[in-house]
Each structure stands twice: as structure tokens, then as C-alpha cells.
Amino acid sequence: MNYLLNDDQTAFIDTARKFLAEHAEPLFLHRIADRQGDWRRDLGELWQAFAELGFASLLIAEEDGGVGLSLFDAVLINEVIGSSAAPLPFIGHQLCCLAIAQAGNAEQKARWLPLLASGQLVGSVALQGGPGRYRPDSWQAQAGGEKSLTLATVEVSGSHLPTLIVTGLAGGGLGLVAPQATSLQRLDKPCVDPVGFLADFQVNEGDIEALANGSAYSQALVDAGHAMQAAQACGGIVKCVELATEYTKVREQFGVPIGQFQAVKHQLAEIALEGEPNRPLVWHAAQCVANGESGASRHAALAKAHLADAYLQVARKTIELHGGFGYTWEADLHLYLKRAMFLSAHLGSALSLRQYLAENR
Questions:
Q1: At a CB cut-off of 8 Å and minimum separation 6, what does 315 contact?
Q2: What are phi and psi of 216, to 5 degrees?
Q3: pLDDT tens-digit series, residues 148-170
Q4: Which region, left, alpha or beta, applies to residue 348 given φ > 0 means left and ψ of -120 to 50 means alpha?
Q5: 3-state DSSP call for residue 85?
Q6: How far is CA 225 from CA 90, 135, 230, in A?
Q7: What gap in Å lies between CA 46 and CA 156, rounded to an integer?
Q8: pTM, rounded to two decimals
Q9: Would you say 74 and 58 are in contact if contact means Cβ atoms under 8 Å apart?
Q10: Cα distance between residue 115 and residue 179, in whole Å
Q11: Distance between CA 355 and CA 353 in Å, rounded?
């Protein structure tokens, strides 16, 4: 596979990086984490401005109002989001777009994709079939059924923008829950990531509409989620290495920057080695899933498992390198550690993914 980025990809990455550097700077993140001011409005404005640049519609075809790029391109942008710890519902939104674009019928695409592309509607996915279980064979909901159920631990936007949910169905299918469904009730819940947001949704099965070809794409949707999470972890690792390096240049001990001490140099080298070599693993997984190659599920699960562990280790070591200051609320580092903690659990822990891989060799 050719992993040399073309000019368009490079320009798209630069645009995302500049936008987030200006609009999701550390002070903004801390304001969201502290729930200061009209933070829900701020989150909505951030998302809609991001969408206006085309980032909400990456995986939507041009004829449906989108940009028409691939999962690999979305992964590149997600790395940038990971490096800024931006409070954007990017992964859930892209997975929702992908599910409808691949598995929806013409009517479903025409109704929902333009709204998702414009950012007026935030997409998300509810793929948990049981505590810690995200595989299609664990899903239980019945489209058009009679039961009331809970869509648990759904990643959502912290804004007041309406949410369109793609949920897993019994038998491995996929269904849609419209934001105006009469039975739908949202219950926000705490998230370990202070700039991330989770909710449980109560809904009657009668308000779930099946996606026409959901069963053919359900596993690919889970795989795409793993690749996207691995990419965000990869971006977070890069930022941790950057923060660690910069700190050792300005923090002085005995009259010299601590970066001059051999022990600190070794710490920096260990942090960098745990992070940087992971990018090819992420990109390869994304390409395999995007191209529908055999073994894509395995590559995606490996990438998520490995990057989730690496991100946690790098974030912890970066905090240790900052000494006592690294453990304070005022430091930016806790935002990355807590994002790493969230990514390590959502859509399956590293342990559960490795168990799956061992059982399905």
C-alpha cells in the first residue's frame, strides 16, 4: 500500500490543525471541562464551524452533499483531533454517516445524509450489546419490536444539537433511531473524559427503523470504529511526546534545563518509542477496512488494542516527567490521560479485543 499522502490530504490535515489550534486551544478545553459560561452553545458553534469546512461529511458521497472521501482520510483528520483533545463527536458522527451511506436505502440516504453533512444533525452509534461487548452477535434490539430498551453509553455531543443514532440489531443488523422519535429519552451520564460526553437513551423498539443492508456492513462498522479510535490515540501520543519535549526545555533544575540530564533523555526516548512507530499500524488497519480486505477485522482490533495501551502508558509517563505540576487540574496533561482512559474502554478494551483475536485466529 502507498502511504505517501497526496497534496489534497496534506492540505486537509493542515486546515484541520489550524482550525483546532485557533478554536480548540487549551483555554477553551479547560472552560469546557469546568463547564464555564454557555459551554453547550460553544460546543455547538465549534462543531458547526468544523462542519462548514467539510469535516462532518468526509464519508458522505458528493451526490448526497458530502466530500466523498474514504475512511483512511477520516483517520488522518482524527489524528489531528486526538492531538488537540478537541471536544468533537467526530468518531460517532463518522460511523453514523458510514452506516447510512453503506447500508441505507435511497430514501434513508436522501433523508439523513444531507443533514449529517451540514452539521445540523450529529450522528452517533449505539453498538454495545452488553457490558463491554460490542460484537454484532451480542446485539439484542428488534426493529419495530414491542419492548422498551436502553441504548447504553452512547458517545454524544455536549451541545443541544439533535442526535441521530445508528444501533445494532439482533442478528447483526443495523437500525436507525431518529432524534424526533416519540419514545426517545436522553439521560446524560458522567464520562471519565471531562471534554467528552456520554448518554443513555431510552427508546421503544417500535421507533427503530432497520437499515436496508445493515447485516452486510455491521462488522465493518465496528472495525471502522476501532481504526478511528486507534487514530485518535495515535494523535494523542504525538501530542504527549511534544508536551514532554517542550517541558524539558523550559523546566530548570540546578540552573540548567532538565532535558540535559541523561535520565530525562532516556525517559523522552522511551515515550517517543512507545508512540511514533504505531502510525503504520493505524494506517494499515484503516486501509484494510476501507478496502474491505480479508483480515480487516483483525488488523483493526490489533490497532485499537495496541494503541489504547500505548496511549495510556505514554500519557502516564508524560505526567510523571512533569513532576508534581503534571498531576494538577490546571495542567493540560490530564485531558490527554482521561481521553486515553476513555478510548481504552469504549468499543472494547484491549484485553477483550486480544481475547477475541486469540479465539478467532
A1: 236, 240, 333, 336, 337, 340
A2: -80, -15
A3: 999 999 999 999 999 999 999 99
A4: left
A5: coil
A6: 11, 12, 9
A7: 14
A8: 0.95
A9: yes
A10: 12
A11: 5
pLDDT confidence of residue 1: 63
The closest of 78, 159, 176 to 122, measured between CA atoms, is 159
Task: Dump strand ranges (E) for 47-136.
Answer: 122-126
Report the pLDDT averaged over residues 256-267: 84
What single-letter amino acid sits at 245? T
What span, in angstroms and rounded, lies between the C-alpha atoms of 202 and 185? 5
Share of the chain above pLDDT 70, in %: 99
Burial of 146 (0-12, 13-18, 19+ CB in 10 A): exposed
Distance CA 109, CA 97 (A): 9
Would you list the DSSP string of 224-268?
HHHHHHHHHHHHHHHHHHHHHHHHHHH-EETTEEGGGSHHHHHHH
Amino acid identity, residue 264?
A: V
| Buried/exposed 98-108: b ≥16 CB within 10 Å, e otherwise | bbbbbbbeeeb
With pLDDT > 90 as the criterion, what percentage of the chain qualifies?
Answer: 84
Q: Quote the mean pLDDT of the chain.
A: 94
What are the backbone angles phi and psi of residue 128, rounded to the nearest 5°? Answer: -85, 120
- For residues 35 and 238, give the distance between their C-alpha atoms in angstroms, rounded to a whole number: 27
Helices 262-275 and 214-250: angle between axes, nearest 10 degrees = 170
**Helix (H, G, I), strand (E, B), or coil: what is residue 349?**
coil
The predicted model gives 106-118 an average pLDDT of 97
> Which amino acid would we find at residue 141?
A
Bridge partners of 165, per DSSP, are: 124, 177
* Distance from C-alpha of 228 to C-alpha of 78, rounded to nearest angstrom: 7
pLDDT for the residue numbered 152 = 93
Residue 130 to residue 126: CA distance in whole angstroms: 11
Residue 34 has pLDDT above 70, yes or no: yes
